[in-house]
Design brief:
The chain has 306 residues and is mainly beta. Helix content is 14%, strand content 43%. It has 4 helices and 20 strands. The N terminus and C terminus are likely disordered. InterPro entries: WD40/YVTN_repeat-like_dom_sf, YjiK/CarP.
Length: 306
């Protein structure tokens, strides 16, 4: 009898585990509420990107004209450091990378929307990903050219990173809207090679997205949160299955000009930044577990006892 119970419970557990990512994703957007809105006094205009330093919860902000990187402490509402850089011409998105696999130094990366216009480095690629040391705020020398067609300043706007797969995800604003994947390290094809993850314009518009301004990686297993500036909207995309979660769309309508998004999983915070100098903070609200998660836990206990 115990063996039969074990077999049945095990089968049901296997079936439910295939839905674990879907179940958790379907409650992502609804679990956040706007809890704060700030203006950064030291930024006059052109705040365009944000990432979370996972060690401290401090925020890395990318600002254009002049191009600089700021370290902002949300706990004190203060800009702690500012670093000007000429390594990036038109920085738009920024993403946290974590510890380097070789030396262990912590790093982040910035996407340069129009690298081809840079004069100090001869790079034929239209866009570039530039890696920085998170402690010195200086370039490491690791760069990736990304040769995408750019029309009317509609190039790569946002950047996310999957550390488990060592893959960058970059979003192109328009002409066409698309998400591309760029492998990090020695496995990358020469000549700015990349893989198109999604460029289905109908799928984008199906969740109310008419442009792409930012992206952040939110869950191990391949989920991206994509930001539309024109619609002031966030949508959750399943990279593994190539589809949007149509119920996981929520508005950031209070933002004047949203440009970037970052997710702090450790602290349950979601950040949206926009021009000229705004930060919107969304806090995760603990709610009752969905029924499928409760059943999954019960079946897990049953298998353990059997």
């Amino acid at each position: 009898m115990a063996a039969v119970m074990f077999s049945v419970a095990g089968l049901l557990l296997t079936l439910l585990l295939t839905e674990t990512t879907t179940a958790s994703a379907l409650h992502f957007a609804s679990s956040f509420r706007l809890c704060d809105r700030r203006r950064i006094d030291k930024i006059v205009m052109n705040l365009s990107g944000i990432a979370v330093d996972e060690r401290s919860g401090k925020l890395l902000l990318v600002v254009n004209k002049p191009m600089r990187i700021l370290v902002y402490n949300p706990a004190t509402n203060m800009v702690e450091r500012t670093a000007h850089t000429d390594a990036v011409n038109d920085g738009e998105g920024v993403t946290w990378l974590g510890a380097n696999r070789v030396g262990g130094a912590y790093e982040f990366a910035v996407v340069d929307e129009q690298a081809k216009t840079r004069k100090i480095v001869k790079d034929p690629s239209s866009s570039r990903i530039v890696v920085f040391d998170a402690d010195t705020l200086q370039v490491t020398g690791e760069t990736y050219g990304v040769d995408v067609d750019i029309l009317h300043n509609k190039g790569l706007e946002g950047l996310a990173y999957d550390a488990s797969r060592e893959r960058f995800y970059a979003v192109q604003e328009k002409s066409p809207m698309r998400v591309i994947a760029i492998p990090r390290g020695d496995d990358r094809e020469p000549g700015g090679g990349y893989e198109t993850v999604i460029d289905n314009q109908t799928a984008f518009r199906g969740v109310g997205i008419t442009d792409l301004a930012g992206a952040t990686y939110v869950v191990d297993g391949g989920l991206l949160l994509l930001l539309s500036q024109e619609q002031r909207r966030l949508a959750l995309f399943d990279v593994e299955n190539g589809r949007f979660f149509e119920d996981e769309v929520f508005d950031v309508s209070g933002a004047l000009h949203p440009e970037g998004v970052a997710y702090d999983a450790q602290r349950g915070k979601l950040y949206v930044v926009g021009e000229p100098n705004e930060i919107f903070v969304y806090c995760r609200v603990v709610e009752e577990l969905p029924e499928e998660v409760v059943v999954l836990e019960e079946l897990t206990n049953l298998v353990s006892v059997g």
